[in-house]
Amino acid sequence: MILVTGGAGFIGSNFVLDWLAQDDEGVVNVDKLTYAGNLNTLRSLRDDPRHVFVRADICDRAALDSVLAQHKPRAVLHFAAESHVDRSIHGPAEFVQTNIVGTFTLLEAVRSYWGTLPPLKRDAFRFLHVSTDEVFGSLGADDPQFSEATAYAPNSPYSASKAGSDHLVRAYHHTYGLPVLTTNCSNNYGPHHFPEKLIPLMIQHALEGKALPIYGDGKNVRDWLYVKDHCSAIRIVLANGRPGETYNVGGWNEKTNIEVVDTLCALLDEMKRKASGSYREQISYVTDRPGHDRRYAIDARKLERELGWKPAETFETGMRKTVEWYLVNGEWVRDVMSGEYRKWVETNYAQRG
Ligand code: NAD
Ligand code: DAU
């Protein structure tokens, strides 16, 4: 069995669903169910014995020890994090707590569990840490893409907390020999993306007739990767990555934010035509994000060269799939936005201890 943290969030849930669609090896899914975690996403696994859900905080050492002892995973894949840059600007404390203290607590629990394994299982064990390209800071227009050798220069409380977690993971390999792997990925998009992030927020606002709020001049660049391609990269790194190594993951899809929103508007104009005019008319420029990184871009050649990974989707095919998904899954969006879902989870889990 493998253990996944944060498997009720955007990327973690896509990973769990993809894994169980391709593999019979079970998954124990440890998630605190913050506002970003949603069990509805995993509804199709409700009666599937291969999926065990445990509601726990990665800062809770006793809970982690107990899950590890009970399920004896051969690998831990660590997705759980506070992930939204804007939230980290308004309230950085949660980011330090989950991303740094939580990763530290998880590493300590895993180190202790790993030490109890017999030699062959110890050698085969892996701790895969899912991180971000934001730890490298911001690029100028003509700079080369981030490689695995780029120096860390995080600029937001979110990216600083992720950088801290990356350093701890690295140190646990160097000092204790824990067989760790780290992936640093660019911006993901696709199904089950929480509608606080650019792409799902713009789709939702467009459909509701609201303004499409572009920060600053709209020319900040992100490098977009369809979430299922991120999941396939993680599977390959888990299977064949070299312990102690880091792997950059990206889709070679650099786009300005205004290009992204233009693409979304064109797809919506085609698939969900308005009575009159274009969704583009809803675009509105708003005050910039403080400290807004100008450009991210990933050089993913190491992953291709060493492990043979390539993304399956282009930006065009991935965006079309994404818009289609949001058009037929309005109920999922309404559930995560309404607050009703959170109340239900509180009610359901409070009585289970
Ligand atoms: P998300 O915010 O959608 O989901 C995070 C999940 O972690 C949620 O289910 C939440 O309930 C859970 N969680 C939060 N705090 C927890 C805690 N203390 N204990 C246990 N569970 C907790 O995030 P995401 O976009 O799916 O990102 C997943 C990982 O991938 C993160 O580590 C993020 O830094 C990284 N990443 C994200 C992107 C992206 O574009 N979204 C790109 C590169 C890397
Ligand atoms: O690069 C990887 C990172 O990508 C991940 O590590 C983060 O977890 C993930 O949230 C994402 O961070 P960004 O800050 O790049 O994503 P976000 O969707 O918040 O914003 C994308 C760009 O769009 C960014 O330049 C800010 C801009 N933006 C965002 C929102 C929410 C807007 O212009 N308007 C908006 O309303």
From TrEMBL:
Q: Which GO terms describe its molecular function?
A: dTDP-glucose 4,6-dehydratase activity
Q: What cofactor does this chain's UniProt record say it requires? A: NAD(+)
Q: Reaction catalysed by this chain?
A: dTDP-alpha-D-glucose = dTDP-4-dehydro-6-deoxy-alpha-D-glucose + H2O
The EC code for this enzyme is 4.2.1.46
KW Acetylation (keyword) present? no
Q: Where is the NAD(P)-binding domain?
A: 3-322
Q: Which domain of life is it from?
A: Bacteria
| Alphabetized UniProt keyword annotations | Lyase, NAD
Q: Name one GO biological process term.
A: nucleotide-sugar metabolic process
Coiled coil location: none
> What is the similarity comment for this entry?
Belongs to the NAD(P)-dependent epimerase/dehydratase family. dTDP-glucose dehydratase subfamily.
**PANTHER family reported for this sequence:** DTDP-D-GLUCOSE 4,6-DEHYDRATASE-RELATED (PTHR43000)
Provide the protein name: dTDP-glucose 4,6-dehydratase
